Amino acid sequence: MISANMFIRCNSRRFMPSQVDEEAHQLSYLQKHMANILTLLADSVDGEGDDSMVLTMETFEHLGFLIHFSEGTPLSQAASFFANSDPDMPAAPVPAALVHDWILQHIASTLEFMAEKSSAKENSLQNASDPDVTMSDAVTNTRIHSSSPTGTSAPNNPGYYRNTTFVEGFSRTSVVKQASDMKGHSIKVLNCHDSVIYILAPLKYATVYGSSDTTIVLGAIGKVVKVEHCERVQIIAASKRICIANCRECTFYLGVNHQPLIVGDNHKLQVAPFNTYYPQLGEHLAQVGVDPNVNKWDQPFVLGVVDPHDSLSHPAGVSDVQAESATCLDPDLFTNFLIPSWFEPQGPTKYNPFTLPEVYWASQRKKHASLEDIQKNIRELEIDDNRKKELACALHAQFKDWLYASGNIRQLYCLQGE
Q1: Where is the C-CAP/cofactor C-like domain (predicted)?
Q2: Cα gap 244→261, rounded to integer Å
Q3: What is the pTM of this model?
Q4: Under a CB-based contact definition with an 8 Å cutoff, are residues 160 and 136 in contact?
Q5: Which of 166, 223, 231, 381 would staple 212 via disulfide (CB 3.0–4.6 Å)?
């Protein structure tokens, strides 16, 4: 059981849940809804009761969107009922009830392990923050004390889980991280506000958590991007997958190979096609296996309902309702995002590698034509030097107002690394 004090900080919506709280919350959510999730994935076969619903190995792999054991290990190879299957012969389907029991067992082990770590940390008054606890971490530790097989191949080494680059606590600044700045294959952007964050590197995992009024560029993410508990952020991400949870008034400019997954309590989310590039982007996409010819940015998939008893995501006393999806950004509001060229001065990518839908192309052409007309009219104006200065001042003032109103002023903050 998880001790009650883990969630004391989260009883008020004024406080942002900690990472340990959020991870426990996510696992508890899966624990509660896994039966329904498996029902959606399972196939019906002849039979009665628990034997009438089965999962194939291919279908089982879809759960890797929600859980994973270790980097580079397919989920099916972590499960004893699919591990070591003959690659030349399709593995036999297994009862959904068996899969359900297996997953719940490991979720329970993980929650217990997290509670023990949290209690140990409080008792020892450690100053350093705990590393993220993954299911593989908990299962590996369970394996030490149990003779039951787990099927996981994650190393029993705490340093393995600290192999992550952190961008944390920045405010009113710009930060750039390139491949040479990365430690490991994961990036975590935590509690940044009113800033611009550039992550221009090929990575496997990215997490954006607890940030507001910030633009975050994620260059090439080969596994999944997770965005949680953010407000008024713009996420520009090229990734295989993205999962969005408990966010408000955020816009996502996406190049994603799979449907964006939306869970939890979200409000006023917008999605749009990917809108930028940098010279090394094409190479980075190839490195991590993201296909720029496939983009499902406009096909968000909403999972589950909002739980009225969940103090982390919804006020009490409200009936379960379908979680809110995202709307497509109005093409007239779509703009390209310019990454300053001094970040990556050389490289083969000269334009956005993701194809822009025609309706967005048309809007861009219209804006470009309007800009050319304005420039032409200004050049043809026959006015004296004093009037030219007045015009220049007026244009600069309008441009400054637009920078602040649009949030683009953040791109002009002094660049600062860690």
Answers
A1: 149-290
A2: 6
A3: 0.61
A4: no
A5: 231
